[in-house]
Amino acid sequence: MEVLQAVELWVNPTSAVSRRIEEGLEKIARSCAKKKQKVAEIERRVGRLLGQNSRATGLFEVRVTEGEGGEARLAWTKKEGWSGRR
Predict the structure, then answer these.
(1) Exposed end of the chain (fewer CB within 10 Å): N or C?
(2) Domain tally for the chain?
(3) What pTM value is reported for the model?
(4) In angstroms, rounded to a whole number, what is the distance separating the alpha carbons of residues 47 and 3?
(5) Which helix (H) or strand (E) holds 72?
(6) For residue 31, is it within any domain?
């Protein structure tokens, strides 16, 4: 009989995955600052970035809002004390 063990997955908040997400968010934010972007387009880019780096998505709280001129604005925070354990 095979015994299955539960495995805890966790991500160090300073790991390569979390750095990749942060760098990607910074790149998206720079593109929003340079040119007026649609909110739906930025939401897709953020979703794609988080989907490609899913192990650390819980570390970030990301908000895409619409500015007064209709442009997309991106803001995010890194959660303190997040362990990444599932």
Answers:
(1) N
(2) 1
(3) 0.77
(4) 36
(5) strand 72-78
(6) yes
